[in-house]
Structure formats: structure tokens, C-alpha cells
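Reviewer 2 asked us to include a model.

Predict the structure of this chain.
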Amino acid sequence: MKRQAIALLTMTWLMLGMVPATVGRAWAASDVATLKAVTVSAHPAGQELVLRLDGPYTYKIVHSAPDALLIDLTGAQASGIVRHGIWSNPTLAGYTLLQFKDASGQSVVRVQLDTKRVETFVVRQDGSTLRLLFGET
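Predicted model (C-alpha cells):
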């Protein structure tokens, strides 16, 4: 009888100890923004690329060349979105999304844009939206 009581108490404490551990993980995962959409549209000054995210993030232009552009979205993840897209566009040919963790362990989404001889672009961050306008001087 005494062994059953000890076993029951042990199981109860193990189950109660697991609840806070899983709740803490769920809260930590919500700090990562999710990339929701990558779209291109015509703009009076050129072509506009719009990246929509649902949380806080930072961006950095890692590489800029006439035929490619690499943008790192730190603090973001790419889930539920197409990882590779092709456009029939005079400025942008397509994109590829790469997911990795940086040296500090933060989640990063690298957006690789395949461009067609882009010389100038302007970047604007409006809250959870990152806009790149190609062709504006």
C-alpha cells in the first residue's frame, strides 16, 4: 500500500512538473516573427517587392549585386509559405527562402532575390512590412 502511494505521488509530481516546461516553450516560440507573404507589384516609380511578417524582426541587406540581392530577416521564420517563387517581371525574376540560425541562436530567414540588372532600390520598413522599391532614385 505504501509503495502504491509513493508511486502515485511520484507520477503526480512528474506530470505537474511537465506543465510549466511546455508552457514556457510555447511562449518562447511566439517571440519569432513568421514570414507570411512575398509579393511583387507595379509602382509608379518601378517595381515594389513586399515582405509581410507577423511580428518583430530586423533586416539587413547582406549582398547587393546587379543580378542578386540577399536580405536577412533576423528573428523570423518561414513556415507555411512557398520557399521558391518565379515571376515574369521586368525587374525581378524570382526568390528563394533559406531558414537558418545565426551564431547567437536566433532564427533567420534569408531572402535571395534573383534580379534582372537592378541598379537602384530603396528599402522601407513599416512595422511588420518590409518594402523594396526598385527603380526609384
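Residues 18-29 have pLDDT under 50 and may be disordered. The helical segments are 2-29. We have added this to the supplementary material.
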